[in-house]
Amino acid sequence: MNSPFNMLHALKPGWDRAVQTARLCCGLPDYDAYVKHLREHHPERVVPSFEEFFRERQEARYKGGGGRCC
Amino acid sequence: MQAAIPKPSPAAKIFWVALAIVGAFCLGVVALRRGEPINAIWLVAASIAVFVIGYRFYGKFVEHSVLKLDPTRAPPSVLRNDGLDYVPTDKWVVFGHHFAAIAGAGPLVGPVLAAQMGYLPGTLWILFGVVFAGAVQDFMILGLSLRRDGRSLGHMLREELGPLPGIVAMIGVLVLMMIVLAVLALVVVKALTHSPWGTFTVACTIPIALLMGAYLRWFRVGRIMEVSIIGLVLLLASIWFGKYVADSATLAPLFDFDAKALAWLLIAYGSCASILPVWLLLAPRDYLSTFLKIGTIALLALAIFLSAPMLQMPAVTQFIDGSGPVFKGNLFPFLFITIACGAVSGWHSIIASGTTPKLLANEGQARLVGYGGMLMEAFVAIMALVAAASLHPGVYFAMNAPSAIIGSTVQQAATTISQWGFVVTPDELIRTAQNIGESTILSRAGGAPTLAVGMAQLLHNIIPGGGMMAFWYHYAILFEALFILTTVDAGTRVGRFMIQEIAGLIHKPLQATESWTGNLLATFTCVALWGYFLYQGAVDPLGGINTLWPLFGIANQMLAAIALMLATVVVVKLKRERFVWVPGIPACWLIICTLTAGYEKLVGPISFTAAANKYADAMQQNQLLAPAKTMAEMQRIVSNNYVDMALTGLFMLLIVTMVLFCLRALLKAWNINHPTAHEEPYVALSSVAS
């Protein structure tokens, strides 16, 4: 039986992907993926908080590079 | 190692044959039915069939035979994974990101202007242009960049063609950027001239964005979704409140400006906005406009499907002979210049070699993102065309023809337009203006207002209600203005970096992006460049769009030609000469179109030269020609036309130079019997994937 809770659960991956897309459209990559990458490949580096990560990416988005279309 | 194209099953074969028949039938109805209006659904269905077939067959052919993409090969996102710029990402997420980056105001404006020739020429160019040129360009540049560590177009040009062609292309991109910013800002000016309601709502976006910026910075860091919803609610409230501003005798004059004043306001705004920290104004408005853009495109699609409007514009009008009021010039080459974004847009080659190739997790997903993303944009262009063609043609021409042609009263406009065969009464024009809550709809060229009226009518069909049309109209205007202001702000910053890079070639210290002097100097140079063309558009005798849009089209198609030429050279360098025609034919077509259009804009009756001479001759005889009111204004119109001539000449020179560089590289590569392209070496995905 599909309870409403299970159905919501089934929608979760789709919702996560939508959120990830929406954030990426604003130039904000996936924070969890970045943390995972740091832990695996650069264990010596300090992991930035989400707030620091967000601010750094916000600055980076508008530094040159023709990022949008007419 | 090349995966063979799998053989289709019998069921799949039947499906594709059926789709082809349905598509051909719909296209037949669109192309051949004359004398009676057809439903827009025919056009939409024909487009979807063409796109799906193009994606499945031509896209796949380019993928397997020309680019030889290989799903077993490790892409840059895996090889250089840094968790920030290079991240292997789900293909649908990359698709959404890529589409949001390429879709802009361009595909909404060009098709609306081109509707003066009827809906058929524009439709055919969008459908076949995108399948054989636009999507091929985006996809091939993405494919090339994927094999080169996600390098930019400029970098690839330097690598494959040499340093000098790289600089030539860089100058071309900078000039294109300035024209893009000027023409987009002019679209806003045209939409807001003497419209207190529109100006008020657009002005409201500034405090709303500042509020969002502060909220995101200090209160709830990084909660983009939350703050965007708050922003959206405030925006809708400002549209609602705008009606009271427009109706108020004290408030309305505060937001009532003519074109010149609006141009100066935008120039001042552009200079300030691009110096402020990004988190304060640019970033929050960027989030809002990105979501609003996707939402509005979805809303437009929904409105077209649900209301299924009849196309009131004829399939082909008499204006294919070049005498059209919206823009002058024959079908060839000006249709192919006017509809740039939507059919083929050079700008996309910058995006396709920007962030997208650094995110794709597999080469096998490039067709979906590169080719498929461009097909989606073409679909947006088709929807814009439908919205314009479903308007009463009389209303369409009243909105898009300059006052120098149709006069400045509804009586004059109705008489002139009715003489063209599109019978319309002054009453109809007044009623349309009243319905959308404006004092006049005359001569609001630029695409945005026309699209807004079209959209308002479509949405009004499905959600009726008193006064709602005015709400939807101002919603559509706000959406485009918000989006364009973001582009102006971000574009000024990008332009600043480009100017600093070019200036650095001459004087090294100017390149330092940390220096305040260099920054301010480059920022003001950038604003002055686009501001000059914006102001020129605002005082132009034919309303500006008429003059600037062809320049924009020529520049955009020039960049597309450069990108396709690069693809052609690389195909030969890879020793796949058999397929040189795939990027080669669209490249040649765009070279022919841009050079012919450039030539006609330099010599002959519709040229800048002719316009300059007309005003210069009148000045010699001490006559004043409208809209100039003084001799100084006459002089300004003459010199503006000289500048446009010089710019057209520059574009033509850039194209010819690039053609020569490419021919040299082509000949050289053709005569060497081994591949000479600068691809990164093959690394198996299985050897690096974790």
Task: State the main characteristics.
heterodimer; A: 70 residues; mainly alpha; 64% helix; 0% strand; B: 690 residues; Amino acid/polyamine transporter I
Secondary-structure map:
The complex is a heterodimer of chains A (70) and B (690).
Chain A: H1 4-25, H2 31-41, H3 50-61
Chain B: H1 10-32, H2 40-66, H3 76-79, H4 91-102, H5 106-114, H6 119-146, H7 153-161, H8 163-192, H9 196-219, H10 224-247, H11 259-273, H12 282-307, H13 331-338, H14 348-352, H15 366-389, H16 393-400, H17 403-406, H18 410-419, H19 426-435, H20 448-462, H21 468-506, H22 516-539, H23 545-573, H24 581-602, H25 608-620, H26 631-671, H27 685-688
| Total helical segments of chain B | 27
Coarse structural class of chain A: mainly alpha
**What structural class do helix, strand and pairing data of chain B support?**
mainly alpha
Uncertain segments of chain B? none
The first-level CATH class of chain B is given as Mainly Alpha
Question: What is the alpha-carbon Rg of chain A in Å?
Answer: 17 Å
| Distance between the ends of chain A | 50 Å
Morphology of chain B: globular
CATH superfamily of chain B: Amino acid/polyamine transporter I
What is the approximate shape of chain A? flat
pLDDT averaged residue by residue of chain B = 92
CATH architectural category of chain B: Up-down Bundle
Helical amount of chain A: 55-70%
Sequence of secondary-structure elements of chain B: HHHHHHHHHHHHHHHHHHHHHHHHHHH
Question: What fraction, in percent, of the residue positions of chain B are helical?
Answer: over 70%
Major sheet summary line of chain B: none
Proportion of strand residues of chain B: under 5%
Beta-strand portion of chain A reads under 5%
* CATH-assigned fold name of chain B: Amino acid/polyamine transporter I
